[in-house]
Design brief:
Number of strands: 0
Order of helices and strands: HHHHH
Number of domains: 1
Shape: elongated
Radius of gyration: 19 Å
Length: about 100
């Protein structure tokens, strides 16, 4: 039972993280603000005295890289869903039966 819950929570974590990383750079959320123009980023770049940090994070290249990480997380979640039984068996220490 613990192994099944572990795999389920891992799948949920990958799905949520993948959705956030895929959508966050491109969607303007009311609380957070725009990806390249948020308070935390402005504060960190001002305190570190690195104004180019704000421009770098706001660039399309960084947004694309973060979106790519989100897509990888989504792929991992779907792979885990497809191989749920094998993941549970590996966590329980049983030998995984391969399909031939």
């Amino acid at each position: 039972m613990v192994a099944k819950l572990t795999v389920i929570f891992f799948i949920i974590l990958c799905l949520l993280l993948g959705l956030y990383l895929t959508l966050l750079p491109w969607v303007n959320f009311g609380v957070i603000g725009d990806w390249g123009d948020n308070y935390l980023l402005a504060f960190v770049s001002e305190k570190a005295n690195v104004p180019i940090l704000r421009q770098t994070v706001a660039s399309g290249w960084i947004r694309g890289a973060v979106t790519g990480l989100g897509a990888l997380n989504l792929l991992l979640a779907f792979w885990e869903m497809a191989h749920f039984r094998q993941s549970v068996e590996m966590l329980e220490g049983r030998e995984v039966k391969s399909k031939k």
